[in-house]
Amino acid sequence: MTTLPWHSFAFSTVLFSSISALLIRKLMRNDKHDAVLSMIIFQIMLTVITLGFAIVKGFVFPFPQELWPRMIFSAVLYATGSLCNFYASKYLETGELTILNAGGAVVTILLGVFLIGNEFNFTYAIGTFLIMVSIWVLYS
After folding, report:
1. Counting runs of H as helices and runs of E as strands, what totals does the chain give?
2. Contact present, 135 and 103 (Cβ < 8 Å)
3. Which parts of the chain have pLDDT scores under 70?
4. CA-to-CA distance for 85 and 28, rounded, in angstroms?
5. pLDDT for the residue 2
6. pTM score > 0.70 for this model?
7. Cα gap 54→58, rounded to integer Å
8. What is the DSSP letter of 92?
9. Of the candidates 37, 58, 70, 129, which lies 20 to 30 Å from 48 by C-alpha distance?
10. How far apart are CA 33 and CA 39, in angstroms?
């Protein structure tokens, strides 16, 4: 079995995330749609798709017992972020929400450096600076 280069996965992530953001925005634009219910249905659909993929590929449970609290905490944070994203999609335009989500990359970089000790070198500093400049340019 051959594996795809990371570029293919990065491109796919950008493409499918963008399409998903547009579809969520279109769904949330309707005042009759509830953000909480939509987020729950979305998460259930993700679970079913992921479970199907895991069954087809052969699932091996990788987490030792001591990681369960971290996994639960991570799931709570992810669900909270998803819920906030659905609420934001209801009130913001897609472009504004995309800009705010781009700021999440900077937060992720900083938290990675301070919380788990990721390396922060000159290249990452330039990338972080460019993200901040692009957010500033798009908002001004």
Report:
1. 5, 0
2. yes
3. 1-4, 63
4. 10
5. 62
6. no
7. 6
8. S
9. 70
10. 11
